[in-house]
Amino acid sequence: MPARHAVRIRARPGGPIRRPPLEEEHLPMHVAVIGAGVVGVCTAHWLRAAGHDVTVIDRRANVAQETSFAPAAIAAPALAVPWSAPHMPGRWLRNWLRPHGPVVLRPGLSPANWLWLIRWLGESRARRFVANQERLRRLALLGREASLALIAEREIDSRDRAGCLRLFRSERALAAATAQLPVLADAGFIVEEASPERCREIEPALSDELPLAGGLSLPDARTGNVAWFTRQLKRALMADGVRFHFRAEVNELDVSGGRPRLRLRATPELQDPDLTWHPPSAPDTLEPDAVVLCTGTDSAGLLRRLGCSPGFVPVRGYSITLGIRRHERAPLAAVIDEATGVSITRMGNRMRVAGGVELGARRELSADGPVPEALWRVMRGWFGGAADLTCPQIWVGERALLPQGTPLLGATPHPAVFVNLAHGSHGWTVAAGAGQVLAELVSGRPAPIDLDGLTLASLRR
Ligand SMILES: Cc1cc2nc3c(=O)[nH]c(=O)nc-3n(C[C@H](O)[C@H](O)[C@H](O)COP(=O)(O)OP(=O)(O)OC[C@H]3O[C@@H](n4cnc5c(N)ncnc54)[C@H](O)[C@@H]3O)c2cc1C
User: Fold this and answer.
1) 26 or 236: whose pLDDT is higher?
2) Does ligand 1 have an atom closer than 6 angstroms to the CB of 317?
3) For a FRET experiment, which of 23, 65, 260, 393 has its CA 20 to 30 Å from that of 370?
4) Whose CA is nearest to atom 33 of ligand 1?
5) Which residue, judged by its Cα, is nearest atom 3 of ligand 1?
6) Does the predicted TM-score (pTM) go above 0.70?
7) Three-state secondary-structure class, residue 228
8) From the CB of 296, is ligand 1 less than 6 Å away?
9) Any bridge partners for residue 314, and if so which?
10) Ligand 1 centre from 438 Cα, in Å?
11) pLDDT of res. 18
12) Domain assignment of residue 240, given as a range
């Protein structure tokens, strides 16, 4: 076993992080955050903590209604690995060809999808992967530190569960993963090799329907509920004076003058039918001092106004959330089935199975589509009989993914407009750290981590 170098990162004691005072030109500004997913709301937290007057705008009727609604929500810096990795094209191909595999390329892929796939293959070469992985992990480590600080500062009951187990069906795949353990240990991650018996000690309900060669245990990974967390954070921010304008779509970002000007359109059609609270109407225009785009997959229109087209595409994934019928058969925390990339997580009295890759024209969401079918199979394979199948909540979400799998943070060609985008399949892991980076940059201070490879400017190089 490799030596374990534990990196225990704790929330800073004594409340808000102390920062140097703002230069006069950056003195409390009015900052508009567009997008109230987990990334936008975390960004609003750090901007408010830096002393700014913050307005969050979203076309939906509440926070976390799009990609942040029902993802798997496993956060572990050791798992912050870009999807453009040397082993991934093979895994996608196998899962695409498999009769019930969770990878689906729908007919009618757009030219943008094809271009993305070609660039993704290029980024999967070993040298490119190592560089991209280092960039993503840098942000994921900051994400862990920043989320602990945020949870402590805002006194959020995050309801997180600790621990995640990666399950390997074949000796070959397990050997390839364990070969990486010394590298992970040197980088300070706690990852423990687990025999099949040890896997069953960690997750006693694991069934023996699928072959189990062994696992890797990540005791300091955490699994949360992204929508719950984001709603708690919204509540704390509202109490601290942050304004939220819902059902308001920013359909124009005018940067022709010195100051950005936002035009808003009311979107009553995007109401959440379950919402009993109706937020007041948003104004028609806003002229903040600075704008941060946290608009997830649907950012192309606003980015075009800035002369940018970074080339990320929406890669769809699914989740099925179910009540638990037999607790003794259910997972205690989180497992990831390495053969398919599908995860199964425990969320209080419910469990969620999530994953899949779907590119191309979107079809009606249905419980027996190819990806949901693959999720059902993985869930039944590892935790058969655990779930109450009567009322499943089936969800599809779109991950904004660059071919290199790294997010885009910070400056744009307009000095008062910033981006916090393209978090792919790691948005929950990095949201708090990415928000902290943005707040520092908007405030005219250096970012807390090296942003090499994580900016729009680095894409152009
Ligand atoms: C199946 C699946 C599993 C996942 N599992 C994990 C995991 O285990 N760990 C992990 O770290 N991450 C995971 N993720 C990724 C994570 O969920 C996302 O990266 C994260 O939720 C993205 O958050 P966001 O705030 O950027 O986007 P979103 O939540 O989509 O928020 C963007 C918001 O912008 C708003 N918006 C867009 N345009 C406008 C406009 N013009 N005007 C007003 N509002 C606008 C939208 O309404 C939306 O609310 C998973 C994703 C999927 C799909």
Assistant:
1) 236
2) yes
3) 65
4) 35
5) 71
6) yes
7) helix
8) yes
9) 400
10) 17
11) 45
12) 27-85+125-159+224-311+403-461
Mean pLDDT in residue range 343-348: 96
Nearest CA to 427 out of 70, 58, 17 is that of: 70
Q: Is 352 near ligand 1, meaning CB less than 6 Å away?
A: no
Eight-state DSSP code of residue 240: T
Tokens for 19?
């920062």
Look at the chain and report how many structural domains it folds into: 2
Tell me if 34 CB under 6 Å of ligand 1: yes
Residues 415 and 280 in one domain: yes
Supply the CATH number for residue 64's domain: 3.50.50.60
Segment 10-24 shows an average pLDDT of 45
Does the pLDDT value for residue 453 go beyond 50? yes
Report the C-alpha gap between 445 and 428 in whole angstroms: 24
- 191 with 137, same domain: the answer is no
User: Any residues with CB less than 8 A from the CB of 184 and at least 6 apart, and which?
Assistant: 2, 78, 191
Q: How confident is the model at residue 16 (pLDDT cuts 50, 70, 90)?
A: very low
Q: In ligand 1, which atom is closest to the CA atom of 60?
A: 47
Q: What is the CA(185)–ligand 1 centre distance, in A?
A: 31
Same domain, residue pair 346 and 426: no
Confidence grade of residue 361 (pLDDT, cut at 50, 70, 90)? confident
What is the reported pLDDT for 21? 53
